[in-house]
Sequence to fold (334 residues):
Amino acid sequence: MFPIILPKKLIPIKQIKNITKTGSYTGNDSPDYCSARLTTDVFEKQTNENTRAKIEKIKNDADLCQSGQANNLFDEYCSKNPDIELKRGQILDGGEIYTSSYTEFFRDDIDWNKFSSYLSKRFKDCERVNTYDYACSEGLEAYSMSIMFQHKFGEDAEKFFPIIAKDIDKDTITKNIERQKTGKMPRKCTIGSMAKAINMCPHDMEKHFVTAEMTISHGAIKKTDALKEKVTNKVIFDEANILEDIENIDSKHPSIIMMRNMWPYVDENEYQDFADKLYHQLAPGSIAVVGSFDSFYGKLYDDCPSIAKALTHAGFKQSKVMINNKYKLIFEKN
Fold:
């Protein structure tokens, strides 16, 4: 899930016109909008050489780049601005590499089978578990969790519902609610890859969808774009800024707080206050889950601010369970 978030001291993330026409576009009426998944404006001011080295490292990280979009835009910008020094919040004259509200089912920075196994064990004796998905964007991670819970937990899945999916973007939430009425998704989804993510038979995955069509590309691939109500009605969408919504989290029962791949776009001065308040609000047994981008960003250089450090300082413990092959993404309140 790669969200757009933010306003309370958040980096301005916007669609920039007149940039290289690469990657995905938002429609025929706006061909110059590019949905690159990486920003060049999230790093503290460095020397030009160090900044380039860090960006180069990111460009080579498959988890953070999409089809060369970030590479092309960054190269274009650097060619026009050879002495550029990047710093947090900077709007780039040559076209900012920005993060869109593009999301996907079962985003692969999580091993969803290991994650479901972990959740099963951790919340085995709980009668009720709150599930929150912040910076939910188009809602595909929330729907992924709905499918995962129903497939992995059977009748016991009900204790995790509803999934409260929140995003700061009012228009995004409005569109999510409208799409929820029909189950139609913002783009077609490949059933095979979705099924593989949770060790599910593709035929069983199809049962979660209203329609499916055959597409021939390197063999027959089943694709679909409409979810059944049994998946969508487990999710409630609402508008909220995570920095200002902590008091609305239920503190009577343990919670799962999905807040992934968003923290590089939040003012790092907000990290510790947020983490402290979250720890105080959550019931014992709760967990917070971040994303690989959050973790990667937090290790770019010595003393780089990170949400992981803030959560740990607040009292959370990093789980030993690895649901990502590089980073520890789960933080527990025991």
